[in-house]
Amino acid sequence: xxxxxxxxxxxxxxIRQAAFKLFSAHGVQKVSIAEIAKKAGVSQVTIYNYFGSKxxxxxxxxxxxxxxxxxxxxxxxxxxxxxxxxxxxxIFDKTKSLGMLNPDFLISMVSNEPGIQRIIxxxxxxxxxxxxxxxxxxxxxxxxxxxxxxTEAILIYISAFKAVKTPELMSDQDxxxxxxxxxxxxxxxxxxxxxxFI
Length: 198
What we know:
Largest sheet: none
Organism: Desulfocucumis palustris
Strand content: under 5%
GO molecular function: DNA binding
Number of helices: 10
Order of helices and strands: HHHHHHHHHH
Number of domains: 2
Oligomer: single chain
Shape: elongated
InterPro entries: Homeodomain-like_sf, HTH-type_Tx_Regulator, HTH_TetR
Mean pLDDT: 83
Keywords: DNA-binding
Distance between the termini: 51 Å
Protein name: Transcriptional regulator
């Protein structure tokens, strides 16, 4: 990559970061390209040249956000924490990080818009699920996850929690965070409370 390409990529990354900060603080609808350009220190024309439209920029921001989260999950999985500490951190930190995002931005991330749906589905199928399978298998081998429950059943159980990501829930931030914390507790500990399979 030559100097011109490096500068171009740096500008694109500045635009992505500026857009993410503004979208996550104020919501997508309330943020203009002019505001993003000002925060990124570029012209509006530069944003349109690099991304084409605000919708395309949003899709790019969501892709970058998901890839960054995936890298955090990989680093967590490879850390020296115990398996129970890793899974608690994964579930409860994820809940807290979602609670800090503007509800409008969260709604955009679970939008029915085909481009965003493709991004989310591709991320889940090709990146997140393979990582989860590896993590589940490791938990089983270490005796932290019940070996009598198939990985397939666990993945179905995990996918059932997608149903809570509705626009109604996402639009109420206080309720959103409280319910996500309750669901994370239910997911991790079950109806009967904490129990370790050793």
